[in-house]
Automatic annotation (TrEMBL):
This is Uncharacterized protein. Keywords: Membrane, Transmembrane, Transmembrane helix. It comes from the Bacteria. Residues 279-340 are annotated as: Disordered. It comes from Candidatus Desulfovibrio intestinipullorum. Residues 285-310, 325-340 have a biased composition (Basic and acidic residues). The chain crosses the membrane at residues 214-235.
Amino acid sequence: MSVLFASSQRNDMRPLAFQGIFATNCYEQLVALLEQHRDFLARQGMPNAPDFLAEPMHDSSGTIDWYARGETMPVPLASLAPEDQARIQETLAQYARALTALLDQRQGQGQQALGQEQSMAAGLLREALQHPGDNDIYVVGNAPLLINWGFAAGTQGAVPQDIMRLGAAAPIKPAPAPAAAPAAPIPAAAPVSPPPPAAPVAAAPALFPGCLSWLLPLLLLLLLLWLVLAALGFAPSPLPASCFREDVSRQSEELRSQSLADEEARLLRQLEERAELCKPAAPPEDLHAEREPVIPEPEPVKEPEKKPEPAVEQPFFGAAPVIPEEPKPEPKPVPRPRSRMEIPKDAAKKNDLTFLEGCWRSRTDLFNTRGEPIEGEYCFNKKGQGRRFVYERNGQRCSGAARARFNGNQLVIEAPEAACPRGGVYVPQSVNCTGTGASTECRGREHSRRSNTWKATFTRK
């Protein structure tokens, strides 16, 4: 289960990238890395490490919704008492030291031992621990929660804040070493006779004399040939394309182009503002030119104060007519929790998906591959875009994208694969809802070889 607690604008910030990959687009990989080293981070003073980064959901309009695990609503750090803020700052410093220990340990293992994906995940984690300002830290329970991670402030030349710098102010005190026991006296060694002189050994001739002088240029020539063939499309590229398995979608490219266009407009606006501040240089003053005499202005003549005239009372002609007040529009009904989903009568005609805003619990009779029952959850915004969550009995939460739309008078909810932090995915599925009001009924179907179908009941969370 998750709760929406904050939103931000992507155009107001500058995304940070590692090897051309934005850190904010790799939330699942970062959570998997923290989940893999959960025990190590817990020993270093960072329990529940995967919950430190809030889950982002990007919108095509540039809005980023931030979700937190659980049902508790996070609060900003600045709204707490000073003593509580100091306690959370100490916890953040402990988190920074634990993450520094993890990254130092992985750096000591080397890139060849970790592999390309693990090395890239560590680099993305360093970028994800940076954020624009102090208002990005929230508190849920007694643990800090970070939003706007992987971004810097949109101001030109602004330096982002780094969680890793909090741990440098208070280094970990080393534990005192135990007192060493007194060493036993070393007995005197008996004199050893010098060894006989070794017989001279003839040096073996080189196996390939002079091969190193042409082997290195040959390797460089082969590497250059590989890069040229990769650029022409005849050979695979040696550089990673993305942290995702699938290709970059068209929507991601549109978001990237929109971000670049907004950045260009912002830079042009700053250039125009700075150009307005530049004043033209004044022409040099001619000292020999004739000057007009400066005549002082006459002092203003003070007018005598006028005495206030006595107020004239208006005659009373009776009470003014009472004008009735215009009726105020009735407020929109607030959705009740645990209420069943009902499609409004005119929603399909107007293509209105605002009634789906929020999170819905999907009750089904589905089981996972281990025979354990699972629970589904869908969260949408006003445009019908959101995410799908699958909760298992062991506490694991798998997530993926979700989208709702009208197909005639039928509401269609489509969800691709849902990836799990510990490995494995749930197959794509779709839900079709018909009827309006209390007669709304939904049926789900899995897009797999079995094509399992079920009756889906949606209740508001």
